[in-house]
Specification:
By secondary structure, this protein is an alpha+beta fold. Among the domains are: 62 residues, Double Stranded RNA Binding Domain (2-Layer Sandwich), CATH 3.30.160; 63 residues, 2-Layer Sandwich (Ribosomal Protein S5, domain 2). It has a four-stranded antiparallel sheet with strand order 1-2-3-4. Helix 3 crosses helix 4. The protein starts with 25 loop residues before the first helix and ends in a 6-residue tail after the last helix. The relative contact order is 0.12.
Amino acid sequence: MENDTKKAVVTPEPAQKPKAAFPSSSRDTGAPRSRFSGNRPDRKKPREERVRSEFDQKILAIRRVTRVAAGGRRFNFSVAIVLGNRKGSVGVGTGKAGDTSLAIDKAVKNAKKNLVKLHLTKTSSIPYEVRVKYSSARVMVMPARGRGLIAGSALRDVLELGGIRDVAGKIFSGSKNKLNIARATVEALREFSAPQSSQTQNTNQRENANDKPKTKE
């Protein structure tokens, strides 16, 4: 007789992977992944806009200064800068520090202390010719109607940042020191600076009157 009973087929169960003692991520735990996982947020914060200064600046020269000390040589940087708002205010300043960025900041602060406020004509020009000698630099600034700005070197930088137009400038000295040329230009522009107060004008008139020679009767 044939055996009607069927033999049961036993299938081996798949081997399970050992669970980690400490889950490394949300995938191991099966928990839903957080939206703000990690240090990278979905939305970036907008950058803060820097407030633009009303003054423009131009670096005239950067020099490396060496000082010999007991421990060896020490290096500093000296910066000369021109500062102006192109509306009649201009100044020259210098700064020295071990880093160029810090030296520039010092030069800007020094230039703001030495600002000269000019009283120009309606066409942003000067009324008459001026000649000035500062140290070894000799410059001349004269009005040039309808010709724009005619100048070079540091003389042009000072006039341009001061907002002066229709002017011709000339450097007569053989010196190429831009700092002295810039300071000579500022001294020339002091002729057109803000008028003095009434009190100082009266004192100047008294001093001039005392200096006059007395006439014999």
